[in-house]
Amino acid sequence: MTIEARINARVAEVTDRIARRSHDSRARYLDRVANAASTPVRRRLGCANQAHAFAACGTRDKTLMQDGHVPSLGIVTAYNDMLSAHQPYERFPELIRQSARAAGGVAQVAGGVPAMCDGITQGEAGMELSLFSREVIALSTAIALSHQTFDAAVFLGICDKIVPGLVIGALSFGHLPAVFIPSGPMTSGLANNEKAKIRQAYAEGKLGREALLEAEAQAYHGAGTCTFYGTANTNQMLMEIMGLQLPGASFVNPNTPLRDALTCAATERALDMTSLGNQYIPIGRVLEERAFVNGIVGLHATGGSTNLTLHLVAMAAAAGLALTWDDFADLAQVTPLIARIYPNGSADVNHFHAAGGMSFLIRELLATGLLHRDVLTVCGDGLDAYLREPLLDAEGTLTWRDGPAASGDSAVLRGIADPFQATGGLQVLSGNLGRAVIKTSAVAPQRHVIEAPARVFHSQEDLQRSFAAGELAGDMVAVVRFQGPKANGMPELHKLMPLLGVLQDRGLKVALVTDGRLSGASGKVPAAIHVTPEAADGGGIARLRDGDVVRLNAVTGRLEALVTPNEWAARACAQADLSTAHVGIGRELFGFFRERVSCAESGASVFAG
Predict the structure, then answer these.
(1) Within 13 Å of residue 536, how many CA atoms lie on the same side as its CB?
(2) CA gap 5, 196 in Å, rounded
(3) What count of other Cβ atoms lies within 10 Å of the Cβ of residue 264?
(4) Which H or E element spans position 560?
(5) With 70 as the cut, is the pLDDT of residue 3 above it?
(6) For 592, which DSSP code?
(7) DSSP labels, 465-507
(8) What are the tens digits of pLDDT across the range 212-265?
(9) Which residue, among 424, 445, 433, has the nearest Cα to 327 in the 3D structure?
(10) Contact, 478 vs 512, CB < 8 A?
(11) Which residues have CB under 8 Å from 201's CB, separation 6+?
């Protein structure tokens, strides 16, 4: 079905300024893509090189690779047993190999990339490696593809830093077609609202650890992504709306016949996209400015993870494109919030999928001109293919049908004419404390403006100790600083949310200001995060003192300490001893990353210029 709508003027303006801002760097990138595409390496490798590449293959695959005229598909996998979302990938390589053979090609696992779980490292020292793992994944992807024996690649990754790292690595081989293959979300377990209540009760000492662990085990109970709308599931929405996944592939549960059929279809499509196939579609051409604008619009419309304000910037830079937080802010002003998935509501991603999911979301955004329709995707030209959803027919064959024209549950997913709120779920703040982002979609409107005295902490453990000691009894803006990328790798501080939620439920005015992260699980407490410049870089947040009145205004987009300009300018920046955050649990290996990393608004990336 074709939907015609004139592109929204703000969307067009933001897209145009990204293109103009990025003109030179994008041109250089596209020259690299064109040069690489014009010199296919595999067929001119030395005989010893090629023999090494297929030495371990079976007889049929070896014969085909030796002939050199069939497409060769590289598999880059983030499989491990520890991440529930990645455990299903154990089966995928053999499915892909079989599908490639049936389609007349060959597939090999090119390499693996690390995949750590933020849910396991929350509040622990290992979380300080989390953001930097994105860079390691990008580097590992480049190593996997550096053998230059592949005509296309498929990428098996789904969670927080893994998809962005895979995208950055894939873009360094921008001449190769690329298809991302998700594993899907786990089935619904303990309701997210109930889980949040139990966490708060534990924080108040009303429940013991045994009850908390049982609740967590009921919530995270099987294979697949966590079902709340955090970074992992936001990644999947983005890969689909940006055209790197097959239509409707994002939220099909793992280890089901439909999931397997989609994996096989993705393999066939990747082979068809090679220069030896029917329609050459390199990833470097797919991910252009319109695709990134589509992704940002999808992020706002669904109230997605705040982590993507870092990742999208870093991903775009890998394609020669310069995104800024102002682009996010301006698009938020014209994009209504039309999905409510926990923590923005009580539903999980399975409910979102059942209510109409991605096909309905894209239909609504296209119909009002908020998405660029005529973009290149792994399905070919345009987003029309993404108005369909996959299913198995009576014979078990994969087919697609038109997605629903109406939402199946208006409490979860709505049309543009009746949004949950008029503007997107993310806002950019600025003021004498620097620049920050806030996720407003889960915050009650009466809490979008908070003005209260600052309580300043140099670690989340300090705040936790103050809470346990009963020292947090009044209105406050909790400031947790020296948590930025240069300081300690910018960990997520999600373990603070139950404590702050308790204080808010007691009737206090509460907000959080930090140069650290909170992830897609950012909840009901207003939180200005990713503050930049960070404290370790001499940012305004380092000048704050206990008792300074701080105003967080998500309506006007302001974040400021109500201190006179003269006094503010005269203040020295606080210092912190960060030495204990730089050793142990492998942190000593990442000193170069901390020294090299860019600011949050530039993607907190070691690859930034």
Answers:
(1) 26
(2) 41
(3) 18
(4) strand 558-561
(5) no
(6) H
(7) HHHHTT---S-EEEEE-S-SHHHHS--B-GGGHHHHHHHHHTT
(8) 778 777 877 889 999 989 999 999 999 999 999 999 999 999 999 999 999 999
(9) 424
(10) yes
(11) 207
Q: Are 335 and 427 in contact (CB under 8 A)?
A: no
Give the bridge partners for 454, in sequence order: 477
* Residues paired with 399 in a beta bridge: 391
Count Cβ atoms within 10 A of the Cβ of residue 436 and give its class: 0-12 exposed, 13-18 middle, 19 or more buried. Answer: buried
What residue ranges in 515-557 does DSSP mark as E strands?
527-532, 549-553
| Residue 320, amino acid | G
Q: Give the H/E segment covering residue 13.
A: helix 9-21
Residue keyed to tokens 């490696």: 129
Q: CB-based contacts of 190: which residues, under 8 Å, 6+ apart?
A: 215, 218, 219, 221
Q: For residues 48 and 62, give the distance between their C-alpha atoms in angstroms, rounded to a whole number.
A: 14
Q: Which tokens go with 318?
A: 């890998």
Sign of CA dihedral 192, 195, 197, 203: negative
CA pseudo-torsion sign 580, 581, 584, 587: negative
Domains in the chain: boundaries: 9-39+70-187+222-402, 188-221, 426-602
Rounded CA separation 29/214 (Å): 50
Q: What is the pLDDT of residues 146-197, one digit of tens each?
A: 999 999 999 999 999 999 999 999 999 999 999 999 999 999 877 777 877 8
- Short-list 324, 384, 283, CA closest to 74: 283
- Portion of the chain with pLDDT greater than 70, in percent: 98
One-letter identity of residue 137 = I
When the candidates are 3.50.30.80, 3.20.20.140, 3.50.50.60, 3.20.180.20, the CATH number that belongs to 426-602 is: 3.50.30.80
Taking alpha carbons only, the member of 488, 353, 509, 352 closest to residue 446 is 509
* Cβ pair 379, 17 in contact under 8 A: no
Its pTM stands at: 0.95
Write out the E strands in 99-177: 106-112, 152-156
Check if the beta carbon of residue 165 is closer than 8 Å to that of residue 134.
Answer: yes
51 three-class SS: helix
Question: Measured between alpha carbons, how far is 585 from 594 in angstroms, rounded to an integer?
Answer: 15
Q: In what order do the strands lie in the sheet with 178-180?
A: 106-112, 72-77, 152-156, 178-180
Q: At what angle do helices 59-67 and 47-54 cross, to 10 degrees?
A: 150
Per DSSP, the residues of 408-430 read: S-TTTB--TTS-SBSS-SEEEEE
Type of residue found at 455: R
How far is Cα 578 from Cα 444, in angstroms, rounded to an integer?
A: 36
**What does each C-alpha distance from 451 to 95, 349, 499, 549 come to in angstroms?**
56, 34, 19, 7
The reply to whether omega before 533 is within 30° of 0 (cis) is yes
